[in-house]
Amino acid sequence: MSATLAVRGLSVFYGQMQALHGVDIDVPKGQITALLGANGAGKTTLLRTISGLNTPRSGSVRIDETELVGKPAHEVVSAGISQSPEGRQVFPNLTVRENLQLGAWIRKDKDGVRADMDRVVGLWPRLGERLAQRAGTLSGGEQQMLAIGRAMMSRPRILLLDEPSLGLAPVIVAGIFETIQAVNQEGTTVLLVEQNAHLALKIAHWGYVLETGAIQKRAPAAELLDDDAIRAAYLGG
Amino acid sequence: MRQGALAYGILALLLAAVWGIELFLVPWTDPYLTDIVIRVGINLLAVMGLALVLGFTGQFSLGHAGFMAVGAYAAAASTLYAGVPPVGGIVVGGLVAALAGFGVGLPTLRLSGDYLAVVTLGFNGIIIVLIQNSPALGGAQGLTGLPVATTFGLTFTCVVLGGLFIRNLLVSPLGRVFEAVRDNEIATRSLGIDTTRAKVLAFVVGAFWAGVSGALIAYYRSSIFPSQFQFDRSIEQVAMVVLGGTGSLSGPLIAATILSALPEVLRPVAQYRMVIYSIVLIAMMILRPTGLLGNHELSDVLKRLWQKRPGARSTAA
Lengths: 237, 317
Fold this sequence. Notes:
By secondary structure, chain A is of the alpha/beta class. Chain A has helices spanning 43-50, 73-78, 96-103, 110-123, 125-129, 140-152, 170-185, 197-203, 221-226, 228-234; strands at 5-14, 17-27, 32-36, 58-63, 66-67, 81-84, 158-162, 189-194, 206-211, 214-220. In chain A, a hairpin with a 2-residue loop joins strand 4 and strand 5 (66-67).
């Protein structure tokens, strides 16, 4: 159910511009790893490259012993990595149920898919009440729940979450982070990208700080929460 | 199992209706009216294919008439040079057009939006130029001497088969994938769905029915000309899909019916008919900016009207 993700020397270019400079990251099995950084630091680029949506110029991405660089996005999902993209990006014209079903597209075990659908609905009963509703009519918080739930439907070994707190009210965000923690405790490894460093570090085991495309710091999350420099830069004093 | 039986029942019923009309109504109908109805039917086939590609999968193809040309000339050539009967020629036309759709789609559907529009537009132009410069295909003078076989019955048999085929495709899980690609391609890819494959599939199916539509034209007036399949025809079909509603199958079919018949209906006011036609287009865009039916089907709309009828039991909480 769980796996280790190892990123080594990953360099990504957009045309002439280098977005990632030889990034190394370890996402240990069964833990939550938080990736912090300002706008434009390269967080989303890193997640997209892991997911196979961007092609790196050099470097490697491994899930357990399997190399993922060079594989198209759909094979990366089959290998056990699933992403909830930034800005939610649910399919507005499809119903909540259809959104979740598409998340399980690569799976053939119908009973397992139904069980996972029940699991997602169990985590967020509000989605359960709205299964037949078009996703575009959901609130921002519900759409975020749906985006994470949809990513969980492929039963990933590693779940990538891109800015789950983006544009949501604090009380909603708190609920979503509690659920992320619950999903992790059930055994899914999580790589969490966040601008809200305080919240992310509170539920994470490890934290990385990404600045202008390079890793500046790696430490246990609790240590980063107490770090003065990190406080000043990301935690608002 | 029971659903499959129901689908075959509907198919049999519709085909019986089509051939009933063909045998008992068409012989006593004004040939001019029959002519208009057949032309509408031929347009319906092309438009339902484009509704799948543009309306549901969101791929902006500006060269749908090019696939009609491929179908028309493949059918005509199979009959003239190999003696294939018209019904076989229609299948040949559809298959060759589908093959062309695959050939154009595979390299270009990695492109998106404007780029795809430009490439498909170019494809339409290239096909016309190729035909015009090919003596075996009659060049600009066209091909003549084809058997006349396109009747009301044959046309609407194809319309029924095409309509049910595409509808079944759209209600299948693949239908959700097409819509997901339209709504957000990146998110669809991130779910492990091979979006290029889905787009090529939609493109091939759309091209197949455009090819069938072209083949029917070939067997309608016993001759075909490259000028029948030019770019303006592609644009007209895009207009029908957009006006009918992207994300609806019945909407574009209604729009295609109205827009195909309108120039004929307006024939009495001869010199003003293109003006009125344009005003109708503009008025529809202002009054119904998401298209006639938006992303709903006719059956949804009728259901809602039925529930709103006076005296209906209120379903509101």
